[in-house]
Structures are given as C-alpha cells and as structure tokens.
Amino acid sequence: MTELDIEKENTAIAKAYRELLRVSYRNLSKDDKKFIRKAFDVALDAHKDQRRKSGEAYIFHPIAVAKIVAQEIGLDATSIAAALLHDVVEDNEDYSLADIERLFGETVARIVDGLTKISSLNKSGDISLQAENFRKMLLTLNDDVRVIIIKIADRLHNMLTMDSMRPDKQVKIASETLYIYAPLAHRIGLYNIKTELEDLGLKYTEPEVYNDILTKMEDSKEEQDAYIEAFSNTIKTALDKEKLNYDIKGRPKSIFSIRRKMLNQGVSFDEVYDKFAIRIIYKSDVENEKFLAWKIYSIVTDHFRPNPTRLRDWISSPKSTGYEALHITVIGPKSRWVEVQIRSERMNEIAEKGYAAHYKYKEGAQQDDNLDIWISRLQDALENPEMNAVDFVEQFKLNLYSKEIFVFTPKGDLKSLPKGATPLDFAFSIHTEVGMKTRGAKVNGKLVPLSHILKSGDRIEILTSETIKPNTNWLEYATTAKARSKIKSLLKAEKKEIAEEGKEILRRKLKQLKITLNERTVNELVNYFKLKTSLDLFYRVGIGKIDNTKLKDYASSRSNALVSYIKNKIVRKSSLPKEEIEKDEITNKYDLLVFGKDEQKLDYKLASCCNPIPGDPVFGFLTINDGLKVHKKNCPNAVSLQSNYAYRIMSAKWIDSSQQEFATQIKLSGIDNMGLVNQITQVISSNMHVNMKSISFESDGGVFTGKINVVVKNSNMLNKLMDNLKKINGIDKVSRV
C-alpha cells in the first residue's frame, strides 16, 4: 500500500469511530467516551497487521460490530467497549485476558472471555457437534447475557460482509445463522436483527429464490407505496380530528417471511396478499398508552372491517420477550388483507431494541424483567446434561420460536406457556415439586386429563398427592424442555431404585443356583438376555421380567461349556459388522411394537418399501390380503396411503417392553367387616409397581364382592399383589378376570 492509501484508510477508520459515538442509542458521558476510546486504541493496536478476506483493515469489523451494539441494539458503554475488543484475545498474542481485566475491569474481561470461548469452539459441519457447540454457547448466558447479544451483532456483520468468501463457506455460515442465531435474536426480542439475519441466510442458502422475490418486490414497490398512502389517508383525517400525535409507516414483509408463506400456503408471490404491514406509532405518556391504543383501534375499525380471529392484544398481556402492541388484520382498499400494528413510541423502541429499551424505561420501576425470567427458564433446560445435544437444540428451538398462550393460576396470576402446552407443563413451570406430585388438573373448574391442550385464558388448578410418581406416559403429555428433562431424570432415578432392589434379588436367586454374583456373571447375564447394561439387567429382575425359570435356563446353559462358548461367539458384538451392532442396540432399546391408543400387541409384517427397524417413527396400514403392515412415517408411499386410505391407518410405536404396563381386573369376595376397603387400598398402594385405576364394592347380608382395576408391569407383579390380598383377614377368594 502507498502512503496515500494508508492515509486514506486511517481517515476512514477515524470517520467510522466518530460515527460509532454519534449514533449511540444511549447518551454517552465524557467518562463513557474515554472508556470507549481506550478500547478502540487497544483494538487498533491489536489488529494493526490484520486484514479481512476482502482486503480491508480488520479494525473495520470490530467498529461495525460495536456500531450494531450501540445503535441497533442500544447497549451501554461497557458493551460497546467489549464489542470493540471481542477478537483481541483470540487474534493477538500480545494481549491476554488478564491484560483486558487490568485495563478495562472485570465485567469487560468476562464478556470478552465468553466471546473468545464461543469463537474457539470446534467449528464443524457435523450437526451433533454444532448442537454441542450451541449448548456450550448458551452456557455463557450464566456469565453475562451481553455475551450472546454481542455474538449476534458479530454474526450480523459477518453475514453482511460474506461476498468475498468461498460459496461452500457462505452456505455453512448462512445455515448456522438460520439454525441458531435468528431464533436466538427472536427470543431476545431483537426483531429487526432477526429479520435481517433470516433474509441474509436465505440470500446465501437459496440465492435464486431470494433474488427472484427481491426483484418482484422492487418491481411492485411503486404500486405498494401508492396503496399504503391510500390506506393511510383514509384514517389520517380521523386521527387528526382526535388531535393525536402519531406516525404512519408502511413496512414490507421480509423476503424470508414471504418465502415461508409461499411454501406453507402453496401459493405464488402474487397470491401472497399481506406482503406489508402498516404501523401506527403514537406519542403518549405511560398512563394513557392503553386507552389511546384502543382508541386508534376503534378509529381504524370504523373505516375498515376487521377479521375478529386475527386480533392480537399484546398490550394487556405482553409477550415473554417484552413485546407490546395491538395487531389487527383488516380488509383494506381493493379487498386486500392488511395487518395494522398499533404501538406507542415506548412499545416501538422495545420492539426494536428489546433488552436495552427495557432498561431505559425500567429505571426506578420494580418489575420482573422478561429476559431474566427467560434466562432462568433456559438454565432449567441446560441443567440436564444427559439430554442428547441434537434433541436439546431441537427442543430449545421449539421453545424459541413457539407462539405463546397466556393462562391463569387459581389466584389470578398470569403465566405464559408455549402453544400446545398441557397441565403437566403448567405444573412444572410453577415448581418441580408441584410437577412431580401432580395427580390431576382442573381447567376452568373441570377435571381434565394431563394430556389436555391448554388455551389462552384458561385458569388452571393442579391437584397434587404425596404418593404419586411420574410414569413414562408423562413424556407424551409434556411439551416444554423443563418438564421433559425433569420427568426423564425422575424416571431414571426410579429405575435406579428398582435396579438396586433387583440386584439384591438376583444375588439371592443366583445363590440358590450355586452361582456367585460378580462382574463376570453380570457380563454373562447381560449377554445371555441380549441387554445393553447391568442397569437393564437389575431393573428387569427388580420388576420380575427376569424370573426363576429364565435364571434356571441361564444356569443350565452356563454349565455346558460348549453351549456357553458358542453363545458367546454368537453374541460377541466385536465379530458383528458395525451396522448389525447399531441395529442390535436399537432393537434392545425398542423391543416391542404396539398399535392404537390402547397400545395393543397385534400381528404385523414390516413393509418392504421402506424396511423400518425398531426405533423408527412408524404407522400401521391395514391391507386387504396381507394383514397389518408397518411403514416408516417418511416412507415414499406414506403420503399416498395417509391421504387415500386414512381410515385404514393405525398409530404405532416402538417401546421398551420393560416399561410396558398392562391394565387388568381383580375380583374379590369374602366376609364384610369394618375397615376392609382401607386395608385393601393400603396393600395396593404399598406396592410401588402397581397403579390402581378404579375400585367398586357391593355388600349383601354380610358378604361382599369387589372389583379392582389395576395397571401392572407384568403377571409376576399381579400374582404377588393377589397373594398379598389373600392374606387380608375376611377375604375368601381373589381371582383375575
């Protein structure tokens, strides 16, 4: 570079720095400006020999990120300084984290450390590693939420300046942005940045689609502007009459959201009617905000007919991101649907700046900060280290993007839950202890099953019991990450408890067969019963699935050295090909296929068109000549079968037979005496593996007959229960129906 080029570049850097201070959303004090200047000088020195792929000086990147943080997100001087320094430690050996802490204090050092950790995560195209990295990144929220916010700003600038990168790198970064950063920006309430990230993501992942929609939008811009003006003029007169201070803006929908509408509704660009929204932003003091919003709503609906099903009142019940507004959809000129958003200036700032605007307006007012509530919910989800990373990200993304419903506690407190939540999710959102002891739920005063889908406005009362324990069905009823992770860990704890009992039972039973329970025996038993772990073995013994007969068979096979040798050869996994090992492990986990709501065992054949294996999501199809055939849900023929022969489809799922429960009825008869029913229910409830569904008794002339419906894991448990019932004084006969 010539001296003239260097001088030009230095002038451009100085100009970019001054622009950063000028556009800051916050009012910066003299001390703030000194602090930011110091950070700028350190960043300038650290990056002096670096250039970006495009050839420009690297320092332009941290300045641009700091500008996004200052202007678009509206954070404070500490965050602006951290944004300027975000790559210093990673890219330069002259500056350590200790240097940053000495120069700028503990807070800036903590944020820079968090950003350095995220950048140094293993960058891989492997989705499970991506997911694991994402989980690690979210753990930095523990340190400071500003880490994630600055990381989103960093990603936005990278997306805006990707043109000089290799196409494969562009697609990888854009996909990661759509997969992780856009949902995260949405959840933190940075809607403008979320929209930018989505559009830029589409630009690199589907360039033809992006450019096609962009061109069509530019072509129709004139017509659109004229339409917005016609719409605005109609209501301006009425708003002026009421002496309201307002602005009306027409906002085109993002390219990404138009693309999503085209895909979801199966329509072309021209058939997407609501390609823009009209925003009315009014000036108001906090006391009159709500009143004026509804006044403007009234004026708009006087002129244009509203769609009553499309009213969204986020003023009375703000979203958990803090978003407040009234949204209505009306029929505008030329019979087109138009979305009208009504917001005060304060609400508009919160919609655009999220976190930062909350703090600006929150000073002095003690109210729960939605972002803090969200972070504490996120920590609950992160607490579960056993959750598969990909499942975790998928579950987390559902929670990020899910629409919300607002429900009430019995005392009238408002709670927000994701759409599709059940009473069980509500119980766990109140407290883990409440969730664990949930016996039932009342919605609007009526008893409902735990699988009942809640709606906005429902009032929920949770009924609890000290004796209740979670069961595997609860995982089908719960939808939120917190509820599901807690239920899984509770079920695991219960399994371990039963396994401890099972180990002692196994020790006793093997002693009778003159076999010592040691590591070698346990390994032999695990192989013999085709199980995966010793925990599975002890658990199956504990619930009576592996009984005396099966253990005697094992003992006799063990005594024959040749048989044992051959068996070991057959089941030794090392001699099996990798595919067989994987298939065998899946089969061990899912060894039973059940059909319908009642989970019946039926005869079936596996369809040859998609060859499902245990563990695959499947459904049953009733054929005319071949009986029940099982297909994978993503089978090439699935759509055709489900649309043409829906009445022949049966729901099906693979389950672990050791977790399977069976309903049965016990008949009792005997001499009636005081306290008999109490004794019977005590015997049943003291057996931890039995769940009583219903009980009925009739007494005639001192003799009683009774029926009890119970749910048990297998016949051994049922026999044990019947033996215990026979021991009760006064009972004559106990039989299974």
Compute the number of helices. Answer: 31
The first-to-last residue Cα distance is 94 Å
CATH superfamily of the largest domain: Hypothetical protein af1432
Oligomer: single chain
Tell the overall outline. Answer: globular
**Secondary-structure arrangement, i.e. CATH architecture of the largest domain:** Orthogonal Bundle
Mean pLDDT: 80
Number of domains: 6
**What does the radius of gyration come to?**
33 Å
CATH class of the largest domain, please? Mainly Alpha
Family: Belongs to the relA/spoT family.
Domain TGS: 403-464
Function: In eubacteria ppGpp (guanosine 3'-diphosphate 5'-diphosphate) is a mediator of the stringent response that coordinates a variety of cellular activities in response to changes in nutritional abundance.
InterPro entries: ACT-like_dom_sf, ACT_dom, Beta-grasp_dom_sf, HD/PDEase_dom, NT_sf, RelA/Spo_fam, RelA/SpoT_AH_RIS, RelA_SpoT
Would you write up a description of this structure?
The protein starts with a helix and ends with a strand. It has 737 residues and is α+β, with helices and mostly antiparallel strands. 52% of the residues lie in helices and 15% in strands. Residues 122-128, 363-368 and 573-588 have low confidence and may be disordered. It has a five-stranded mixed β-sheet with strand order 1-2-5-4-3. Strands 11-15-13-14-12 form a five-stranded mixed β-sheet. The chain has a four-stranded antiparallel β-sheet with strand order 17-18-16-19, covered by helices on one side. It folds into six domains: 3-205, Hypothetical protein af1432 (Orthogonal Bundle); 219-353, 2-Layer Sandwich (Beta Polymerase, domain 2); 383-489, Roll (Ubiquitin-like (UB roll)), CATH 3.10.20.30; 490-558, no CATH class; 592-655, no CATH class; 662-736, ACT domain (Alpha-Beta Plaits, 2-Layer Sandwich), CATH 3.30.70.260. β17 (691-700) and β18 form a beta hairpin. α6 runs antiparallel to α7, α7 packs across α9 and α12 (207-219) packs across α14 (255-265).
